[in-house]
Amino acid sequence: MNASLFAYDFNNVKNFPGEGIDLQTTRFYAVPRSLSYMLKPRNHPGWSLEFAYLNVFNVQGNFVNYFENDILTYLPGTERYKAYSNLETTARTDYFGAGGSIKIGENFFVESSMFVFVNSKYSAYQLDINASPTTSLKEDKNGVLHSKTRNPGIGEV
Fold first, then answer.
1. Over the stretch 53-73, which tens digit does the pLDDT of each residue have?
2. Which of 117, 111, 116, 118 has its CA nearest to residue 38?
3. Nearest to 81 by CA among 67, 95, 96, 94
4. How far is CA 50 from the centre of its chain?
5. Global pTM?
6. pLDDT by residue (tens digit) across 77-92?
């Protein structure tokens, strides 16, 4: 039973964010969430089989944003726009693999392995938007909104 692994990762992506920018990275790192088991059959002493599970990426995030601003600047008075957003995301990458080796000579082995990976992502987005005046508005006979606290002398409401 083995529970450790190191990985060497190459990434080369053309036009990554869609603006003609290329992404190229290389890294060597330890994979802390791995589990493998090696089986050596008794009736085939030169053979060995291995089964592995790796979880190389597991992230959870909760992003909250609050915004308040006056968006109706063309109307008299101060109006308030409030927006509250909440994004919850969970993502993970799991690898499942199997492999085997055969002893050819005293110090020579031939090995082969196959891994299948599963990417999973869950996201939930909530948005709450409210627009309201901070002072009362009054509608005149032409259907135009005016603030009760407007400047005098501009017209009668």
1. 888 777 888 888 887 776 667
2. 111
3. 67
4. 32
5. 0.45
6. 666 777 888 889 989 8
Distances (CA, A) of 78 to 25, 81, 132, 146: 50, 10, 9, 11
The answer to whether the CB of 71 falls within 8 A of the CB of 131 is yes
Pairing of strands 47-69, 34-39: antiparallel
Q: What angle do CA 145, 151, 157 make, to 5 degrees?
A: 45
Say if CB 9 and CB 25 are below 8 A apart: yes
Distance CA 154, CA 124 (A): 49
Least Cα distance to 93 among 114, 115, 118 occurs for 118
Residue 116 to residue 131: CA distance in whole angstroms: 50
Residue count of the chain, please give it. Answer: 157
Tell me how crowded residue 119 is: count the other CB atoms within 10 A of its CB: 9
pLDDT in tens, 24-63: 788 776 665 677 788 888 898 889 999 988 887 778 888 8
**Residue 47, strand partner residues:** 102
